[in-house]
Design a protein that fits this description.
Four Helix Bundle (Hemerythrin (Met), subunit A); 6 helices
Length: 130
């Protein structure tokens, strides 16, 4: 793994600590945003590791997985995670969507998303070691 990819994964580790803290503090929308950030940065680490170039400045998780050439490697559960996280990045930023997104988030759902995000990060790290 190159230094640039390692940089992105270190950011993921920091964001994971923040997401856990936000879950404990019952800041579910913010926790979801950080989970999206973790997966986004993990995918960008794959891109950087393969290309040794800066990743694209996009937030679409599915596009990033395709650019990183790992879309086909993702399990059904991982594809579902990407779909679940997508609205937490985009819609959570805008006032008209915050209420709708927030209403869908509860402690059990958020704990599940965080657990799946952490598992995704571990999977990316193992993939990066190869």
């Amino acid at each position: 793994m190159n230094d640039k990819a390692e940089y992105w994964l270190n950011l993921c580790d920091d964001n994971l600590l923040t997401a856990k803290w936000l879950l404990e503090g019952k800041r579910y929308l913010d926790m979801g945003f950080f989970c999206h950030q973790i997966v986004e940065k993990a995918l960008k680490s794959i891109i950087v590791n393969k290309t040794e170039k800066a990743p694209p400045k996009i937030h679409d998780l599915k596009k990033l997985s395709k650019i990183g050439c790992i879309n086909e490697d993702l399990s059904a559960e991982q594809h579902t995670l990407l779909e679940r996280l997508e609205p937490l990045q985009i819609e959570a930023r805008y006032p008209e969507y915050r209420v709708n997104v927030s209403e869908a988030l509860n402690p059990a759902y958020c704990a599940e998303i965080l657990m799946e995000t952490e598992a995704f990060l571990c999977w990316i790290k193992k993939k990066s070691e190869k």
